What we know:
Structural class: alpha+beta
Low-confidence stretches: 134-148
Strand content: 35-45%
CATH class: Alpha Beta
Amino acid sequence: MPDYTEEHARAGINTKLPALETWPNQFPGYIITTRFPEYSSVCPKTGLPDFGTITIQYMPKKDCIELKALKMYLLAYRSLGIFYENAVNKMLRDIVAAIKPEWCVVRGEFTPRGGLTTSVFARWPSVARKGVEAVDLSRSRVKALTRL
Length: 148
């Protein structure tokens, strides 16, 4: 669409948000899943609100995300102009920078707009080409997928 500019596309990506505080993990080999059903942000082009549910799933190494800090971080998106595809990827980038997990997945499931429902799924480390390990958030379990 010609009315969308590079400025719209980059909006909010590098905005400084509240710090994601952490605490020292005491156990190896488990998965943490956090759902935030009250996500909202603002479309950088139209100024209209976007709503959805954010699900964050990760396997901690040395640190875990402190939940109150995570809540304040996610609430900061309410007044931020950012496309929700970028918001999900920014969340993933910020979480990985804060806790350096074994792996992390952020999924955004957004309410319908114009009759379309959108889900955005971002994973770290990024998906390999031959063999893929993916996280199925709908069932909260890890499963391996392989290409033939």
